[in-house]
Amino acid sequence: MAASSQTLPLSSLNTTEIPIQVIETEENKIQESAVSGFDYSQRGQWLRAAVLGANDGLVSVASLMMGVGSVKEDAKAMVIAGFAGLVAGACSMAIGEFVSVCTQRDVEIAQIKREKRKRSSKSIRNDGKLPNPVQAAIVSALAFAVGAVLPLLAAAFVRKRER
């Protein structure tokens, strides 16, 4: 197994350079190519939408239901308000995410066109790696609905207080 050695400078805050020994082996190159073969930025697009959607669904619908519950002591009214909040919030999150990702996609397409003009023969980016606004909208709406279901399920355990 052939190995090459390379020394790279590592700068600290005081601009002192510390040499670091990097040994490149065939095994390291194989592992690096296997890891770099998958584009994690694509996963990040829908994962971000899912996390934000679920968080917003949970907080928004729970807050809405608590507000209705503080005005009217009726679990049915809380559930109806929560369900209405789930539908409205899921639609709102989907539309917002779609518009946001479309804008991001347009910016990236413009950047690709600029790069193609500069390098006329070859582009650095691949058009297949552009963000998908429909996927982000669906994931965001579903995640909002999943987050919003939790306070609705909790309302099933609310009992009317006897006076």
TrEMBL record:
Its main location: membrane. The chain crosses the membrane at residues 46-65, 77-95, 136-158. The keyword Transmembrane applies. The keyword Lyase does not apply. It comes from the Eukaryota. It is a multi-pass membrane protein. InterPro entries: Ccc1_fam. It catalyses: Fe(2+)(in) = Fe(2+)(out). Keywords: Ion transport, Iron, Iron transport, Membrane, Transmembrane, Transmembrane helix, Transport, Vacuole. It is found in: Vacuole membrane. Pfam families: VIT1. Belongs to the CCC1 family. PANTHER family: FE(2+)/MN(2+) TRANSPORTER PCL1 (PTHR31851). Vacuolar Fe(2+) uptake transporter. This is Vacuolar iron transporter. It comes from Hibiscus sabdariffa (roselle).
